[in-house]
Design brief:
alpha+beta; eight-stranded antiparallel β-barrel; globular; CYTH_domain; CHAD_dom; CHAD domain-containing protein; CYTH-like_dom_sf
Length: 501
Amino acid sequence: MAATKREIERKYESDAGSLPDLTGAAGIAAVLDKGVAELDALYYDTADERLAAAGLTLRRRTGGTDAGWHLKLPVEPGVRDEIAAPLSDTVPDEIAALVRARVRSARLVPVVRLRSVREVRHLLDADGGLLAEASADTVTAERLNRAGGTARWTEIEVELADGGDPAFLDAVEKRLRKAGVRPSKSPSKLARALAETGGPHRGPTRRAKPVTAGDHVLAYLREQREVLLHCDPAVRRDLPDSVHRMRVATRRMRSALRSFGAVLDRAVTDPFAAELKWLAGELGADRDQEVLAERLTSALAALPPELVLGPVPERLSAWAESRHGRTRGHLIAVLDSGRYLALLDTLDALLSDPPLRKKAAADPEKALARAVREDRAKVARLIEEALALPPGHERDLALHEARKKAKRTRYAAEAAVPALGAPARSLARSMKSLTALLGDHQDSVMARRTLRELSAVAHAAGEDTFTYGLLYGGQEQRAAQAEARLPDLWKRAYESGCAPG
């Protein structure tokens, strides 16, 4: 079974190749010698090294106290999540799943072998508690998958103990710098091995600054692609907000393809946009359930205890947990499906050979501003039509459509910010406020539908349904308040968030 550990560490280089004495620095009362470990690790990747290009490392290591398979996922500079699984001959299924969006149909093969002799020290506080583990590693690297050679170096690592304060590492670094130790130029041993063992290596791509309208649209799509791929393993691990962020990335890409049809040929991109809509819908099943459960739970908690009649909290909790279990299992099946992996392949192909139209070469300030203005005009028409309807089901549907178009306008404005600056940023903020209001309205619609369903089940079981009716009335009131605020908010959004140009 895989286990997860948050790894916070810093790597250093030293001409001396040994660990300086750190006693007395940063509250270190004692340095305990833990001996020498010999480590032997095979690093796996695809033939074109997709994992390394994304900052991921996958290894099978023997020796030391943590022999096994380790997948390291970047969180931020100096911070990674390490997913560990027991030793086996092949990549464990639970780890293979976490890199599937990157690997897809390619094979994982050994690309580098690293053998290290590690001198380990424990840095202890006055009570004997572990502050960090420091080590000096003599590393021998051998390239396995290309016409490369070997390399050898010594590096120092300081890894913070679980639950430690990252500021401790700052204090330790001051002592190390005084001793002539320098921060490493490489983020990981694998990155250094790939750089020093020869042979071509596909590192992170550095692209030229966007110039044309097409450059800006493609840069935005590439950014969202990376968000989607970064979120994939987080969704599989059921991390907070991961489904939402992945869903937003798919929506942003789809919105960009629709809004900037003058830049990218929609005859080519529309079939792919349809697949993005499918994926967003699959992701939404889990996300919408999560939002709805939080909304109803909060509303119930706000009621005085004497108004909660019957087992309402228990029924609501059981409903939320059962629905989450069903939707989560389905979502993982979606991420493992051929359709999803084909979508990722199509996205890569579209970005590598984009179907650019003539206006893709145009001045971005004109081409992108026009697209944003057209989107804003559609939002205006939909809101006016919705407000002309009487309160009720038809208005609810119309406001939901206006919300979707407002989101599209927001995303188009966000994509245009690098080219258009403050006017696009202002419009994006205005559309964000508008979609938040319309989102609250739509959530109230969905909450009332759910409360009717739960009330019917409770009634059939002979339970008191008073509380469900009370919650229903509260959600109805929230919808009415949103509708009352909408005209003024829309007027201010339209005036203060005017599209550029």
